[in-house]
Every structure is written in structure tokens, then in C-alpha cells.
Amino acid sequence: MANTTLPFSASALPPLPSYTIQTLPPLLPWISDANLALALPIIAYWVVSMFFHFIDEMDFFPHYRLHTPAEVLKRNHVSRWDVFRDVVIQQIVQTIVGFALAWIDPEPTFGKEEYDIALWAQRLRGAQKVLPGLLGLVGVDATGLSEKMGSQHAMLAGALSGGVYPQITQTIVQDGIAMTAPAFADWELSTAKAIYHVLIPAFQFILAICVVDTWQYFLHRAMHMNKFLYTTFHSRHHRLYVPYAYGALYNHPFEGFLLDTLGTGVAYLASGMTVRQSMWFFTMSTIKTVDDHCGYAFPWDPLQHLTSNNAGYHDVHHQSWGIKTNFSQPFFTFWDGLLGTKWVGGDVSARYERARIAAQKKVDADASSSSVTASTPSESTNPNDNLRPYQDEASNATPSARSAQTVTEPHAPPGKAAQQALGSRQQILDDRDAGGVAVLAEESAEEMKAQRKLHQQQQSQVQASQPQTPTQQQQQNQQSLRRSSRKRTTSSGLKGFADRMGESLHGKSSGVLGVDSRR
Asked: Which segments cross the bilayer (predicted)?
């Protein structure tokens, strides 16, 4: 075979290789990649859910629970069987939509990888052509500098000269004749491979995450801000006031399709992922969603620490005082922070076992500084926070909701947090089928119980570290009597509120709350 030199200038681009497209064989011979992408999220959902369910049943880590087992039984307004049934229905819908996507997706192929990598290397070579001009803008003679370092740093000299590498050539065959042509530098090919195999997939994953977060935030928020959407569809999910793992996808079927199935499908199409990439993305999203509803704050769970959107953050959204806050899911809290819907009521950790454990090791000041919701002190205590989007909650609230705000626990600090709690409690009262006032009464009782236990633990720690005189012991007994009196007063106020609300909702009251029942 004759060997000749292909005429080319020093700045010519290396030629791109030829390629042959072939059908990509499946990862597993007995199932297609498309079907595997549908099966993996469902398998992951139940494997991870059953892991947390097993921990629940065996009570292995009670000190990391966000809620006690008694709360799961008493405060939730839906049976575990109903939750299981609705989750299965959503997964059936999810699978049907997945089959439809697989039908319109092109058949997976391979064989073009080397061509695509070379194409990126060509783009890198083209980008180098503008380097001398850019350096010239800051007074650097790139050509002269390239000539000086050419013998010792050939690659750097070639880049500075605008991507000129006359010493790097390759032999190609064209029409049966071997020819010499320009070639790519090793660093160009290595960088192109990193772009193709790492940066582009990473960008696709980040884009898909942003699409899912945006889709779910605005639809989720709309479900709470619109009374019809909430009471008709989304209130079903909030019958789980104490979330648990396999209840993560407990939704109205229409909401499950719109919020979860369609959202991830749009993210998949918008990001241009391959089917195999979608396996990772769909499975990761599913595991993250389950973890956010698991009811545990494990310090060794990486998903609890990768972002601030974790089980503690989302649990606030499931409480009667925070139901109109913390809409972001499942990955980041960007939209909550940007649009002012993040809970700003400060530390609510008295409800959580994690805070009770911390209380055994710290004094009052230390314990009150820890927050499961990651709220900053300025957010928690500043009554002049920007009220958007809660500025209308006070005017829209019924007298019942305002009454609940004064007698139920926890008391939110003044300002934006109080408006958030008021709007959230109004939404609970609007959803009478899911419990209404009973939910507020139950939750407030649990809150007071948790706060009393927390206070007792703190007092015990202080007493153990400080010996008491008889006079101090007598003062402590008097304080205990006063606390007992306050407890009865608060409980009476709560019971009175529940009784008045019950009468009002049945049209038996002639007081202010009775007016509310006719609105």
C-alpha cells in the first residue's frame, strides 16, 4: 500500500473517525433496558421501605425517630392497607406511562462513541484558536511565548499558538491509500473523554434534578394554595400526619400521575438521558423520596446530609402548623428559600426524639439552639420577616383558625412564622373529612407532652450536676405545683377549643365560632 502525505495546513483540524451504529444489547439478557428502568424504581421503593418498616417494627433506633410509634397509630387518619393499595395503584400508572415512553423512544444503539469523543476534541482544538487573541487583549504575545517554550513544553506551546501541533500526526487510509494527517494531542482526547463520559452525564443529571424540583415545587404549592385542589386531591397524602417510608407515594391517583410520574418523565425527556442513565435517575429519585418520608433522622444516612431537604425538613410540612410551608421536594430547598415558603418558626425539635436525646447532654441554651429544620436564628426570631407569600393569611383565616392559633401548640413566634402557622391550621380546618379540629387537638396534646418531657429531662440534668439545699428543694416543689396548674389550664383551653369547634361544626354554637360554621 502506498504511503503519502495528505496536504494540510498547520492549523487544519484532525479528521473525524468513521463509525458503525449497532443495536445495544440489554444489560440483562432476559429483560430489556426499558423494562428494567421501569422495574428498578419499584423494587428500590419496596426494598428501602421495608428496611425502614423493619426498623419500625423491631424498634431498633428509637432515639432517632422523629415521632413515636404511638403517634403513628393515633395521629394518622388512614390505615396502612389503604396506603399500600394507593401506592400500588400509582406504581401501576407509573409503569403504564413508562411503557408509553419506551414505545416512542428510539432503540438504544452504540458504536458512535469514538466519533463523539473526537468531535469534542475538535471543538477543543477550535477553541484554542481564539487563545492568542484573548491573551493579546491583556498584552501577552502568545506567539512569541509559544516559540520560546516550544522545545521544552510542546503541548503548551501548541495551545498558546492557537492549537497548532505540527509534530503530532497520524496515518489514515483513504481510497486504499495510507496518508499522513494531523492528529489530536493526548490531553485533547483525555479532556474530550472526560467531557463525554463525566461532564455531560453530570449536567444531564443536574438538569433533570432541577426540572423535577421545579415541577414538583410549583404543582405541590398550587395543591396547597388552591382550596379545591387541596381538598379534592392533595389532602389524601396529608392524612399521614406522621409519615412513614412506604407512604411516600400515598397520593390521589391523579395527583400521583401529575406530580410524580409526569414530572420525572418530563425531566427524563428534557435532559436527553439515555435509558441506562434513567435507571439511575429514577431509582435515585425514588430512594430520596422514601428517605424523606422515613420518619428517622439518622446521622449516618448520607441522603439526610447531601441537601437540607431531608426527613426533618419535610416532616415540618406534614404538621398542622407547617403544612403550607416547605413545599420543595425531593432534592433541594432552592425554591422555598427564593420564594419565601420555607418554615421560619425556628426550632421545632421538641417534637422529635433526636432533640430529646440532645437535651440529655446539653443545658437549656444548648438544646434550644439545635434545629431539625435548619432554620437560621434570624429567620426564627425576626418578626419583621418578609411576609410574602403569607401576607393574606390573617385576613383569609376564619375565627376558628385564629382561635386555634391562641390555644394550640406549638406557639409560633410573631411575624411571618405566625402567618405560616395560621394559614396551615386554616387548611387543616378546611379539610374536615381528614379530621379537621381533631387533628389540631391531637397534635397540640402531643406537642405539650413532648415539651414537658424535654423540660423534665433538662431539669433532671441540672439537678444531677448541682447539689440542692433544703430551701432549694422546697422552691422546686412549689415550681412543680405551678407547672402542674399551668398544664391543667392549657389542657382545659385546648379541650374547650375542641368542644367549641365541635359544636360550631355541627351548628350548635351561638358564639363567634358558630358564625364560622356558616361561612
From this structure: 34-55, 194-219
